[in-house]
Amino acid sequence: MTNYRFDNLDKSILGALMTNARTPYAELAKQFSVSAGTIHVRIEKMRQAGVITGTKVSVDAKRLGYDVCCFIGINLNNARDYPQTLELLRELDEVVEAYYTTGNYSIFIKVMARSIEHLQDVLINKIQAIEAIQSTETLISLQNPINRSVTP
Length: 152
Fold this sequence. Notes:
Elements: H1 8-19, H2 25-32, H3 36-48, E1 68-76, H4 82-90, E2 95-100, E3 107-113, H5 116-127, E4 133-140
Antiparallel strand pairs: 1-3, 1-4, 2-3
């Protein structure tokens, strides 16, 4: 189902679920003046179309002790090193996002660390220890004033 057509009800359902994925179908039905069955069918169609890919719990990294967020641009020795390097980065718990990019870097990653010392250890002993990595550039995030998903 690659050509799923959205209408205003689908957009409203997605918006409500993005605010609170645990909202009961009956509550959504009441809010949008349709039956719970309609809500169920619409959500199922969006799942089948790949629009809804799952639900997740959001956690506050700082409350878990991760006080340092940074972004690291990675240059590889060779483009063919990408798949192997990605697998090695995937094994590092501190790497929470990775992007294959154009521009100055081959790979751009987001890293969460408990402290600057922890970041230094991850950078030197884990990331820069990967042989295929030629160089890195680290940018430390001072704050995250905008953090949202795309609007349906």
